[in-house]
Amino acid sequence: MKRSGKEKKGKGLTRRTFLGTVSGAAASVAAGSLLGLSPTGAEAGEVGGHAITAAAGGRRRNQAFRFRLDAARLEQKLPVPDHPTNGDEARYLNKIGSYSKGLPHNTFGEVDLAAYAAFHQACRTGRHEDFEAIPMGCPDASQQRKLVNPLAGIAFDLEGTDSHQLAMPAAPAFASAEEAGEIVENYWMALLRDVPFTDYGTSMLAQEAAADLSALSDFRGPKVGGQVTPATLFRADLPGALAGPYISQFLLKPIPFGAQFVEQRMRTVAPDFDYLTSEGDWLEAQNGCAPSQPIQFDATRRYIRNGRDLGQWVHVDVLFQAYFDACLILLAPPDPSDTVTGGGIGAPLDPGNPYLGSLTQEGFGTFGGPHIATMVAEVATRALKAQWYQKWFVHRRLRPEAFAGAIHHALVHGRGYSIHDDALNSDALAQVSSKYGTYFLPMAFPEGSPVHPAYGAGHATVAGACVTILKAMFDETFLIPSPVVPSADGLSLEPYTGPDAGSLTVGGELDKLAANIALGRNLAGVHWRTDGSESLLLGEAVAIGILRDQRGCYGEEFGGFTFTKFDGTQITV
Length: 573
Prior knowledge:
This protein is mainly alpha-helical. It contains 18 helices and 8 strands. The strands form 4 sheets. It has a two-stranded antiparallel sheet. It has a two-stranded antiparallel sheet with strand order 3-4. A two-stranded antiparallel ribbon has the order 5-6.
């Protein structure tokens, strides 16, 4: 892979630049300590030829302090961004365009304005006691679902760029054609939940969905020649995400888990069970009541083969799970003696890894397996904090289920909401009405969406951060051996024999993995397309900040992490 468009090396903090800031004798002392040279002095003791002294310990402590200060100063120099919103919160006095799930609502799902004022006050102050004072909506307090961790959005972190110095563009506005395009896609995702991804090319319903989305005035999903096709349906426009099977190889191949292994057949849910399609169930969910209907499970475990399976996967996953699994698959070499899994992929590490040319050393705690595996988990919580600031304290975007409720009440009860005609005239809306007798968005989860705002998506932000780490650590150009695709019933894996079977790369399948997890939440009905696409970029920015901070901590001669961003450009951090 040609590495182009790199940032200048040495721009971040390194040991070399740190030592360059220490002058004279202090530089000699610092260099000696860093390189393991023994200082002289009566207080020195020798352990294995290395001096252990109180003075040396003090110097190391001071050097660690300087590293932290210099890293903090570099972060401080980053510009403070604007945090634009779509203006809906100020635009609509009844707050119909803003998130309000969990608060009390009238029969049309319009939030109680006094409760919303208390909610807005808490978001303005960020005080724990103000969040505790918000009136909640479920009549039975024992069944009340709680707001999910708003104060995480104002937590500080000691590594990477501060969450408030990372920004997202304004979400599409309530009345816009783009918002209409996104809700139409959500309706089609619900209608196609039980159709296998491998059947999209022959499914009449998938062809109708592609035609309806193509006719919208502002739909921004991937297209071919200006048209949505069954091959681009519900995919992301990322490098590699449009190649090969819909599901990433990292969600299909067996996972070598130390001495154990994980087969990726999952406990999925039964087909044809959708939720919140009646006025009563929908309103209870908006008020924050726990669902009364239990989820219906499939008695047979299956590989992810359709939207319902993928939606359930992202319903109960540990947020960094998919990327930790991918890490294990990438790290483990093929093993013909393992007749169950065959081992992993054994992908080579990134060409910039400082140990690839070493004659006497290999990576472990740095630039080796333990380092990579823990980095995948490390960035996840920081990505969540960055996103929780956007959710609660900037955008407060309503969930698709709430927007669909506005559509229902506009069409059935004559509520005068500013909904774009693209949504009201969609073929998807007509099919939902014919099937369910209402215009609510059929939800994959009995509870509907989580009790936190839509924009951006936590899953997608974590996906962006974790996948960025994996792309920085592994050779993105390595070809995936023996790609597979689930059978239509999800009971087995079959060889993938498409024309691009021999060109699926680690980088492309990692991009696809991020897209699968982000769009899986949309397929369940709980997120919008831009929730995912913009959150991947936010997660990527979180990971870049952490990689930049950590670069200065290594003792190895290291030129930086080089990888392909989600926009297709390459960067060295």
